[in-house]
Design brief:
By secondary structure, this protein is α/β, with parallel strands linked by helices. The protein contains 16 helices and 21 strands. Helix content is 38%, strand content 23%. The longest helix is centred in the first third of the chain and has 19 residues, at 41-59. The chain binds nicotinamide-adenine-dinucleotide (NAD).
Amino acid sequence: MDTICNNYIGGDPVSAKAAQFTPVYNPSRGEVIAQAPDSDARTVDQAVQVAKQAFPAWADTPAVERARVMFRFAHLLEERFDELARMVTREHGKTHEEANGDVRRGIEMVELACHAPTMLMGQTLDNVARGIDGRVERHPLGVCVGITPFNFPAMVPLWMFPIAIACGNTFILKPSPKVPLTPMRMAELLTEAGLPKGVFNVVHGGSETVDALLTHPDVAAISFVGSTKVAKHIYETGAAHGKRVQAAGGAKNYMLVMPDADLDAATSQIIGAAFGCSGQRCMAGSVAVAVGKAGDPLVESLDAAARKMRVGPTDNGGAPNTVDMGPVIDPMARDRVRGYIDVGLNEGAKLATDGRGALLTESSEGFFVGPTIFDHVAPQMRIASDEIFGPVLSVMRVDDLHEAIDRANQSPYGNGAVIFTRDGGAARTFARHVNCGMIGVNVGVPAPMAVFPFAGWNQSFFGDLHIQGAEGFHFYTHNKVILSRWNDPGKRVLGW
Ligand code: NAD
């Protein structure tokens, strides 16, 4: 029988009240391994009340003590690294290397949260007026909520709650119902690390659960990561209900290849960017723009590399990797990606590498689409503009750098853009004029490390303060400016 996931409220697993459930697959095998409940509004309210009650004492706990919990949490994540990575592989389908990256990048966020005492330091100016000193302090907001996508079961939740909690907030995580198991394990580890009950809670569910959180009067802030359509809804509804919101959305990331680029290096980076995590990354490189005579050699080289990729099940009981690419998340994703391959063919793009017939390393009922490359893609085609979120790479051909930058800037999104070149001038012009927040120069996936903001622009981000880095600490705190007048007992000061 499938396991029904518990919620995690007040430091304990709580069986969920729900009328509907989402199947959790092992996408490598096509088996349902659990059911995630669609928690109702009453359950949401229960979690919010628990988090609200836990807030005053946690906010009053010195920042060094809060950070100490994060140090212990980081230690436990290291101890359980393999177990967590295997869990990610099982419920998501990532290769071991990709799952290790998911957990590793997440731990780096916990390490950042350990810096809370320094990051929360305020500012002072003594004697702003005669006898008066001014200072700014950073205070937690209250109950914060995180709503996360399926594609990084460990890292994306860890983008949010470690910093929120280290800042003195309490937190409710609503993970993707497609990958609820890894977040639940992390909740247990946080309790083991000594986090007081009620500071961190997990409530499973879908859109109704999210709407109950978005409109709840006792929720102060919402962090969201997911598709653009939902990100907009979250931003608008959360803001209309008086909440602070950061909402990261989808993407379509362009990779420019100049004629002078190191072809082997560019090929390896583009293959990794397009097909890593089976193309299910918001920083996936989904369009390669070949400039001038780069076109033919690039497509030839990409096609040869894509054909060598071994595709198959990734969960093999912890034995070393035997595949380069795993499945997509569920049968709907597989059908959507295959549907886009039909769209590309109907639109007249040339299918250079067809992933639909990819041979698997072993037979499996899992959800597979092999690496797919379209050549001669035109800007008006849907495969050039829609986020496919699967292993499909579009190649466009243009005459010069400026045309290539224009192509990238036609995208409504603004997460990442990359250039491969040996020419510093071309790289500089590109970096200055491309309208995106995260730029790579000879780097295929320019995803910033924890200390930098995850700086999406345009339709890839709604809000003011991004996830990660100093902006993350600013998002989860508000300023208090304090002016104090203490007169010298020996002197009489008149007026202001
Ligand atoms: P999704 O938008 O379908 O779901 C994200 C979350 O929103 C889930 O928790 C889901 O349960 C909830 N949700 C879904 N529909 C909803 C609705 N109508 N109302 C309220 N809540 C709803 O995204 P996904 O398929 O899980 O993840 C893939 C998407 O996430 C891609 O678009 C990808 O680019 C994006 N993503 C963005 C970033 C970033 O930093 N910009 C990072 C990772 C993933």
